[in-house]
Write a structure and sequence with these properties.
Elements lengths: L3 H15 L3 H16 L2 H18 L2 H16 L6 H13 L11 H16 L4 H13 L7 H15 L3 H17 L6 H13 L3 H11 L7 H18 L3 H7 L3 H4 L6 H13 L7 H17 L2 H17 L3 H14 L9 H14 L9 H10 L7 H8 L7 H13 L3 H14 L8 H13 L3 H9 L3 H14 L3 H14 L3 H13 L3 H8 L10 H13 L3 H10 L17 E7 L5 E8 L4 E4 L14 E4 L11 H6 L3 E9 L4 E8 L3 H14 L3 E3 L6 E3 L6 E11 L5 H12 L6 E2 L1 H7 L3 H10 L3
Parallel strand pairs: 1-5
Antiparallel strand pairs: 1-2, 2-3, 3-4, 4-5, 6-9, 6-10, 7-9, 8-9
Amino acid sequence: MDVDIWAWVGGTQRELHEAGNTGLAMALSDVPGQALEGRYAQLDVVAPAIAENAGTLGLPWLELFVRYWHLLGRVGDRANGAVALGDAADLAEFAKRDDVRDCPSAPAAVEALAIAQANTDGPGYAEERLAALGEALDGVEPGSLAFSGLTTQYVAALLDAGRPEEAVTYAEAAVERLGQAGREASWELGAESARALLAAGRGEAALSALQSATGFKPDDPVAKGRREALLTSLILGTLGRMDGAFEALPDLDVVGDHPREWVEWSRAITLLAGSGSIANTWQLGRILQQWITYFETTGGHRARFELALAAGHLAVARQGIWQARLLADKAEAVLADLRSTEGLPERIAGLRAAADAAAELPAPGGTDELVALFDAADGQSADPERWVGWLAPHSGEDLEITRRYTTTLGFLGYASVGAGIYWKAIVEDRDPAAASEEDVAYLTGLLIESGQDDRVEQLAARLPESGSHLALARLYRARERWAETAAEAEAAVTAHETPEGRRLWSVATQHLGDNAAAADILRPLLDSEDAEEEDIWRLIVVATAAEDWPTVHAASARLNLPVQTKEGPIDEQWHLMRAVLPAPDGSRREVLSLRTGPATARLAVPQPRGMEYNAGDVIVFDPSPLEPIPEDPKAQEEFVIPFAAVTMLRPGGFTSWFFDGVAPTEHEWTEFNEVLAERGWPMWVYSDETYGVVHPATGERLPGVFGWIAVPPTVQPSELDAVLDDATEQWAHPITWVDLAREVGVEVERHERIAKEYGL
């Protein structure tokens, strides 16, 4: 993208503000941050909403900009492949429109499509990527910010095409052209150049190139640190410098949430495990299996193949022969989804040959001893991967062994395999109606986890009435089909009373919007020994939302909560908390609040106009903390626990008014806060230290302040206007409250003049 894109974004924001589209303007500036910082739940809601608004408003550049960042959030860090190809192709076509092609974002659409294709099958799309990227680069000069991004993808495509030396030459030429234009290469281009050198067998040069690029400005500053460390580890490992490779390798908790890094991390891990620098454990195999499953859902076909092969060879090395064979099958299944399979069948054959040549570990006892030995194994130190190998020969013959075998398979990430074996043992070889509740529950779970919904329905059809309804309720709960969940769970409870049935029924009823009924359903668990603590907390939440205070008091007493109120509504002062609530743009907002009871809180911070909540509102929240409480005592003192809001209990009726202007002195600001606090009018500053305004006479930049003041329904706008006028009249620079002045009809022209003079 051309550097002017950010000036254009700023201008567009101002236009949207002036047109009254404040929410859209505020959301626009945050979209790139959402994509780069991994706030994907927010991005996936906000970006499509902005794009739709942009289309309605006839702003195609804005639509392209937002669609690009949304797509980058999918194909970048999340490494979406085939599932994003259609959207990427549509965006590339959209960027060719006459009213869009001159937008600085237009070339980036080609880059995003190339990334999506690379994620799907890099070698298979290599030539297509080279053609499209080459055409796009013909119209982009090195002075443009689009140049580095397009060039980086061109180098990556050359590597996927099996032309590493050409990739090295191209990258070096691009860096030289950038230098001649007075520009520096992006870090990403420097890293891709290092990958090209490594692929060309020039490891030392690759390490030097990466080190030289370390000071380059990254396009993705959030990811640069971990990506640089990972590539350093891979290069050092390839060079045989295992100590340095181990030291540089990012921990699993660093790369675990970033699918883009997984294949490269698996390569580095394979080198380190082969040298004995790290432990090759079943936990590693389980993680790689989870990653393979992820790429199955996102269409990352080439990544699935590479991870399956890497995981398979690691499994052979630790004598997990059964797993290596399953992974070879998984790799072979990918071939049908790839455009290019050159050399891949031979690699699969190599894995199978390695598995066949490896020695199986002997079982720790005879067949009649395995169940007892399994049950006696230490859950902390036992190796579930080895147990699968030992139990496998007897699975299907002995039901107790089959239970443990399929359970362990599911734990290791092979739910579909375990489901097939358990299905045969429980449904095909036996009468499922005679199976234990435990067997039915676990088989149902395996089937749901592996997406075999039709088999759950088949199983339910052969179970007694209560078990049949319960199995279907579990399925519908997992698929969030709430009306069906409620109906089946109610039928299950009617046929045979169980805590699980009531839980499912209550949860579904709550999702259907009837908190009072959800509380009625759970209330019998108050006197049940089978109830869990979580059941009582859920009862407190739904009963509070229904204002069923006797039930709330009874449930609080069972949990020994420090409720001082003996009856009726609970409105006490417990502690500060962060209430996490939805915003109009689809994002989430954290609002400082005072917890007033087991599941209630009063919002303490004024909210901008257009929000569905404000200071003074009382909400119901889920008492499960959204973040763990720190272990360090000092950190605990400063930690304010976040909780998710569930519903509004009682609106406070407060109205917010905006103020803006030059920041006053510390003394003036303290007095101003005291004036508002005396009246119980909450105020919150939304600006930060970077906000500034312009002195109308000298042009000097002055520190600014803006925020919102909320007043209760008993306070008229004229009263707030008068208080603000008295409190600020002696300040060296005025602040303005234009909307409030217009509402009151007092000194409107003065406030509008202040806003204009100070550039507010």
